[in-house]
Amino acid sequence: MIQPNQHDATSEHQLGVGVIGCGGFGLFALQQFVQVPGVRLAGMAATARPAALAAAQRYGLEDVVDVQRLLDLPEVDLVYISTPPFLHYEQARLALEAGKHVVCEKPLALTVEQADQLVALARSRDRLLVANLMQRYNPVFEIVSQLIDRRPLGEFLHGYFENYACDENLPPEHWFWDRQKSGGIFIEHGVHFFDLAAGWLGPGEVVAAHASRRSDGCEDQVQCTMRFANGAHFNFYHGFHQPGRLDRQELRLVFEQGDLLLHGWVPTSVRVHAVADESQTRQLCELFSGARVDALTTYGPRDRRFYSHGREHDVYQQFELHWGEGRQKIPVYCDLLRRMLADQIAWIRDHRHTRKITEQNGRDSVAMACAADRLAHSEN
């Protein structure tokens, strides 16, 4: 077993990546992964062969093999799994047993038991196992973490995430609607946002959850509420029912002295609407470097003080802060994928490296999603 203070053998050569499943998103991610220094594409296996053959042409691969043949290739050090969720557990297990490192699309598995088995196996083999929860690599994630910890807007009180997603490319026969294959919306899609909230607020408890079906029986809307240690609640809504041109997401965090609005499921821009004193305003400008600040109201000495949330506050202006205007989703998304893999490879090469996400994130996000899904269906 590699000891934490030693380097993996892959530190001496390029790390060979083998891909299992390379359809639309798999190819999108792969194009980012192979740009990471020290990474090369070593092989490809397919579950949807036509899509994988097209991806192989992109890289000049001579063949698309079956999964076991890919895992037998000595030049494959890391396996990237981009298949439907019901295949993740078995394919990740086989890869780990073959001695490969694993990066898996979310969710890590469909059940907590499966996730626990994979985590235990990865640790026993000293192999990487990580779900692609790349949201934590967004600079917005760290800025919001600082906003919550340093409290320039006071205490965090409430949050919500609303996801009005497109279903134009999800016909009724698609695996997405089959709970045995996808796990349902909480598990297939919600893990990203459970992980975000846990990263900001720590462990939470699902206290309410609901699900609804459309007329053809497809479960297309879910929502839940989580309660966190400081008593704050966070609401999550996911609905897959919009035309592509109306696909939109919004994440709002409410504090004592204002709120933060993030647009997009990969947040690219931030709007803060708040009241603050001089010191708080300076802290916010430091956190959101380069932001535009538009003053809405300034307060004279007699109007500075107000009372809310059980205590007095002192402010000198009401304002809107805008950060990240002009950042485009797809380039940001590409950057997050590259950051994620580079972080994981740094750990493969030297276990002393501290990663932003580990196997525990994949496991815990599945646990939260399963808790929400279980509660949503407990009344049925």
Describe the structure.
The chain is of the alpha/beta class and 380 residues long. The chain has a domain at 136-331: Dihydrodipicolinate Reductase, domain 2, CATH 3.30.360.10. It is 35% helix and 29% strand. It contains 11 helices and 16 strands. It has helices at residues 24-33, 49-59, 67-72, 88-97, 112-125, 139-150, 179-182, 185-201, 278-287, 329-349, 359-376, and strands at 15-20, 39-45, 78-81, 101-104, 129-131, 156-166, 204-213, 219-228, 233-242, 248-255, 258-263, 269-276, 292-298, 305-308, 311-314, 317-323. The strands form 3 sheets. It has a 9-stranded mixed beta sheet with strand order 7-8-9-6-10-11-12-16-13, with helices on one face. Strands 2-1-3-4-5 form a 5-stranded parallel beta sheet, with helices on both faces. Helix 1 (24-33) packs across helix 10 (329-349), helix 5 runs antiparallel to helix 11 (359-376) and helix 6 crosses helix 8 (185-201). The termini are far apart.
Q: Main traits of this protein?
A:
380 residues, alpha/beta, Dihydrodipicolinate Reductase, domain 2, 9-stranded mixed β-sheet, 5-stranded parallel β-sheet, 11 helices, 29% strand
